[in-house]
Amino acid sequence: MPTTGIVALERSGLPRACPPNGPTSRPRSAERRGTEHRGGRGAETLPGSPSLKRHARLKLATAHCTPRPKLGPRIEPVTKPPAKCKTKEDVRAEIDRIDQSLLALFAERHRYVTRMAQIKTDPHEAYDKARIEAIIVRQRERAEDMGLDEDQAELIWRTLIDWNVNYEKGIIAARRRDD
């Protein structure tokens, strides 16, 4: 079966035109998160829901012209080791620095998840139980090696993976409908 739509255009190497409003045409921030508040239009949207699907289509359509964020260093240098922090403000400043680095890493990871969704052709491909369980085992081992609670690490990774699986399914399903 020949490849059509966005995938075919990407493989052709030909540039796509940006939308009329330019690369800043984006859904409201609540829709980007996949949630709506106060029972408004699209209330209680979840990954794979219409709100997220609209977002996925928009991301696919504008990915070529959306400026990439500056990645910078993944983790900023430690300005104060924990033992040197004397006040709550010192500790909070270091936590804020780490949170910023985590967010940059999540954004980088999300770009790879989006690319994976562009490569996959069937929504069922988004869920690979064997791979997920291998990731969980590996993260639990790494957490233990670092002196972290393995159950907490597992919870964080399962939450991240579940969201990514639903996000991929939404993108793949939206692309299949459009093709």
Task: Characterise the protein shown here.
With 179 residues, this protein is mainly α. It has a domain at 71-119. 58% of the residues lie in helices and 0% in strands. The longest helix is centred in the middle third of the chain and has 32 residues, at 88-119. Mean pLDDT is 74; it is low at 1-47 and 61-67. Residues 28-41 have a biased composition (Basic and acidic residues). Keywords: Isomerase. GO terms for molecular function: chorismate mutase activity.
Set down the secondary structure blueprint.
Elements: H1 5-12, H2 29-33, H3 50-62, H4 88-119, H5 129-145, H6 150-178
Helix pairs in contact: 3-6, 4-6, 5-6
GO molecular function, one term: chorismate mutase activity
Pfam families: CM_2
Domain Chorismate mutase: 82-172
Strand segment tally: 0
Task: Encode the helix/strand succession as letters.
Answer: HHHHHH
Low-confidence stretches: 1-47, 61-67
Structural class: mainly alpha
Distance between the termini: 12 Å
State the helical fraction: 55-70%
Query: What about the largest sheet?
Result: none
Q: Evaluate the radius of gyration.
A: 19 Å
Number of DSSP helices?
6
Query: Residue-averaged pLDDT, rounded?
Result: 74
Strand content: under 5%
Shape: elongated
Keywords: Isomerase
Protein name: chorismate mutase
Pfam families: CM_2
Biased composition (Basic and acidic residues): 28-41
